[in-house]
Amino acid sequence: MEYLLSVDLGGTNILIALAKRKGEIVRLQQFPTGAAAGPESVWHNLLAGLEEVLCREGIPWHKLAGLGVCAAGFFDYYTRSIISSPNLPGWENISLEERLKEKLCLPVLTENDANAAAFGEFIFGAGRGKRNMVNVTLGTGIGGGIIIDGKIYRGSGGFAGEIGHIPVLPEGPLCGCGRRGCLESLSSGSAIARAGRAAIAEGEQTILKKVIQNSGGITASHVFEAARKGDAVSVKIIERANYYLGRAFATIVNILNPSLITLGGGMARAGETIFTPVRLHLKEAAIRPSGEMVEVVPAILGEEAGVRGMLALLEQHLLQN
Amino acid sequence: MEYLLSVDLGGTNILIALAKRKGEIVRLQQFPTGAAAGPESVWHNLLAGLEEVLCREGIPWHKLAGLGVCAAGFFDYYTRSIISSPNLPGWENISLEERLKEKLCLPVLTENDANAAAFGEFIFGAGRGKRNMVNVTLGTGIGGGIIIDGKIYRGSGGFAGEIGHIPVLPEGPLCGCGRRGCLESLSSGSAIARAGRAAIAEGEQTILKKVIQNSGGITASHVFEAARKGDAVSVKIIERANYYLGRAFATIVNILNPSLITLGGGMARAGETIFTPVRLHLKEAAIRPSGEMVEVVPAILGEEAGVRGMLALLEQHLLQN
After folding, report:
1. Quick one: A143 and A59 in the same domain?
2. Could B170 and A166 be called an inter-chain contact, meaning their C-beta atoms sit closer than 8 Å?
3. Looking at CA atoms only, how far is residue B153 from chain A in angstroms?
4. Residues of A in contact with B250 (CB under 8 A)
5. DSSP SS3 for B184
6. Average pLDDT of span B94-98
7. Residues A148, A60 share a domain
8. What tens digit of pLDDT does each residue of B137-173 get?
9. How many domains does chain A have?
10. Which of A185, A304, B36, B102 could bond to A173 as cystine, CB 3.0-4.6 Å?
11. Nearest to B251 among A251, A258, A293 (CB)
């Protein structure tokens, strides 16, 4: 029996899956990334995590057929290296794939995390049976992965699918990327939290202050909770975020005419509070034939989308090589 | 010797090309569409045009290997019919392909005009040697065609590439499609003409009135001419159009990461007045790695892009069938 290892290297956690070939995941375990301590520390944590997962299941290294790793950040598919990553400080032009191959003497495949998640949803999740789909991850940031004709669409440099930085509002709020009015600056979890903070700071009439008491600070969840309780200020913040998300979806639909958009990530758990208005704003802003044919549905793999996508990609890679 | 016929069926003119197989165009001729008189009249004009082109060159019908027709409008690639066309009144759910096949007993291929133009630029024009590119046609309206991996990208229904209706400004000007703030409502020739008209109507200090004297009405060309003469109002109108076009290009670049965008259509003749600011606004609004690698260059086939694209598509089609 041969096994595969699959890793989602995130800014906060490293999620590791051990799976049988062409079969189910036998172990799924999470480790802290320790990103703040820099690349060498992350490298150490990653290797220690892999060791532990194998050790716990009693699987020796030689029973592994391959390792797949997806990571956040700008990933140059063609040079197989991470150019830079906002969530992994110090990761610049690092060829994780080369280094892992050398260290582990195994076939290794690396991939951008948004692409891996999209492929996961396409193969095992809400996108099964589709040919053209887009998976959007709505959390602290906003990521996207595009599947065209059953394959990850990468573009000419490997940077396609940067949904979070679609410019949606001229002179809009400052985005983490340094530009103004990107989708992420208006519709992400951090954008919603920031709008909530601003509402409190500006002395608006809101129950937000009460909702956040005893917690460290305001998060998007607090704004959603206050909105559920009828807080008009919070309702307005969420409506605005949904409006721009719907318009960005319309943009995707006008350009790509996909049959499906899957929406996942922590914030998508808010369910119809997001889905119903986003579908509405999409239909309002998209050309009719494309807007009518696209479905917007929840992604279903949750945090496992990335590792599952990597398992499928790794199987394909091993078959082809 | 076998020949091919290729047609670009536009709202104003029907452009017909007669070409040798795998060779040059031997005749290129334009006829009025007569769109206002309805589909039957257009059908008559099309057939009469084809007859005339063949007759002038002394080519009998039986020497033709196929006919390719591209047309403006929403074109359902999979049912092979024109769903609707803003420039061809009365064309609704018309299967031009079926009708032409029956009438002419020839292999017939139909295609959306923006896709045909993009394929033309890809095979014969500014996109030669690229794998992923987008061709944008900037005229009265704004059209787009996407080439991915050397093929026209159609999306799930055949409606991909609707660049003109990317929503770029919330609550922006009314677009011909009925929505507000589409790219076409801000950066097209008709948008620029409308802004010029509005400037005159609102009594702004502009030489536009002098520039248009003796002509029927204001067009985008008048605004460009006035801007060249230093008219501040016209300069501002064009700057605004370029700003939104650059941001729409950044959107395309963030989503698709193409190596090339070709820009054609009547307005693109304004040259660096458009290209320089559009490249700047693109780089400002796009994510860095994708924004740095994309080139924005003039399309070079002009009005022949559509018929040339159809010739290449027809050759492919005949080889495969």
Report:
1. no
2. no
3. 8
4. 167
5. helix
6. 86
7. no
8. 999 899 999 999 999 999 999 999 999 999 999 999 9
9. 2
10. A185
11. A251
Nearest CA in chain B to A180: B285
Residues of B within 8 A of A162 (CB-CB) are 254-255, 257, 287, 290
Q: Is the model's pLDDT at A100 over the cut of 90?
A: yes
Q: What token pair was written down for B138? A: 């900037």
Res A168: pLDDT: 97
Shared domain for A132 and A246, answered yes or no, is yes
pLDDT digits (tens, 9 = 90+) for A24-52: 999 999 999 998 898 899 999 999 999 99
Q: Measure the CA–CA gap between B116 and B312, rounded to whole angstroms.
A: 9
User: A43 and A96, same structural domain?
Assistant: yes
Tell me, yes or no, whether B135 and B225 share the same domain: yes
pLDDT at B213 over 90: no
Residues 172-201 in B contacting A (C-alpha not used; CB under 8 Å): 177, 179
- Mean pLDDT for chain A overall: 94
B258 near B282, Cβ under 8 Å?
no
> How close is the nearest chain B Cα to the Cα of A277, in Å?
16
Look at A166 and B254 and tell me if their CB atoms are within 8 Å. yes
Residue A308, domain CATH: 3.30.420.40
pLDDT, tens only, B122-132: 999 999 999 99
pLDDT for res A81? 81
Domain that holds residue B50: 3-119+303-320
Whether residue A275 sits in one domain with residue A161 = yes
- Determine whether the interchain pair A167/B247 forms a contact, defined as Cβ–Cβ distance below 8 Å: yes
Tokens 């016209």, located at residue = B234
Residues B82 and B135 reside in one and the same domain:
no
Residue A72 and residue A148 in one domain: no
Which residues on neighbouring strands pair with residue B133, listed in sequence order?
B147, B260
**H helices within B65-112, ranges in order?**
96-104
Q: How far is CA A152 from the centre of its chain?
A: 14
* Residue B3 near residue B65, CB atoms below 8 Å: yes
